[in-house]
Amino acid sequence: xxxxxxxxxxxxxxxxxxxxxxxxxxxxxxxxxxxxxxxxxxxxxxxxxxxxxxxxxxxxxxxxxxxxxxxxxxxxxxxxxxxxxxxxxxxxxxxxxxxxxxxxxxxxxxxxxxxxxxxxxxxxxxxxxxxxxxxxxxxxxxxxxxxxxxxxxxxxxxxxxxxxxxxxxxxxxxx
Length: 175
Known about the structure:
The protein has four helices and twelve strands; from the N terminus they run H-E-E-E-E-E-E-H-E-E-E-E-E-E-H-H. With 175 residues, the protein is an alpha+beta fold. A hairpin with a 2-residue loop joins strand 1 and strand 2 (38-43).
């Protein structure tokens, strides 16, 4: 009976390939973003959808970095000016601005307004530097990860969205 033996071989081969794929370094798995004076790296699995900036309704008595609520296909999403949050400087509005929704796994319907997208980046081809110091407020922030330098000399700072959505200050949008 070659049927069951073939099925067992197929399952073993599939399991082996999945283990190998999980162990292999994955190239180009981060999204490059420009926000404020920095280039940021966001893991693709932490990002959700990327949109042009939708209409945003302001919410009274909230922090300046909390821009308000946007309707994304019938769902209300909190929009945060990431440059204002991270560097205390507003994102200049232009046609290149984008809203990056945070991944569904975070269960916090939020999005980051960024100056522009810089494409898929491969951190494995960059040199790791010391931890970034964006400013005094974020020097010890858990959501600021490693700093990298690419082949062109550009500096990139890793954004840990998992840590960002657990940051008490980020969760406290009210004044």
